[in-house]
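Might you be able to consider the sequence and fold that I enclose below?
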Amino acid sequence: MPKKRRPPGGRKITTQQELDEEIKKQQANMDSKKLGEILARSGFISGGTEALSKQLGMPIVKLSEREISERILGLVDVRIAQLYRVIPIDEEGGLLMIATADPTDTHLLENLERLIERPVKPLLSAPEEISSALVKYYGLDEDSEGEVE
């Protein structure tokens, strides 16, 4: 008899109680984890950046395949880039194109626009690509991720 295949992500949320429990986990960790991350760690969803790309209809920016000018990098202070986990990529019209792992995070985008005093256009990039770019372009080491002096 063939094995039953699990849906992508492994588990399925089948009751309102399960969803409520995952939302409570997210609320308890609001300062550090997003609901999607908690659902992925609990096995309810998978696919990460690729799944988000398909869901949003947004291509994934591969930062490792780009060279970003110092002028563009200078538009976002190292502390802001590190704190918000973003990499400025280019300018288009009056918009600053930024790579982020979550282009749907309106709170992050609004704060970023206020801090850099200009509108941004979010582009999707994998979290590990952003980490590597922070190291490459801003000189941050892997141990300093998330820490702002």
User: Anything to note?
Assistant: Residues 12 and 135 are 37 Å apart (CA to CA). The mean pLDDT is 78. Residues 8-46 form one domain.
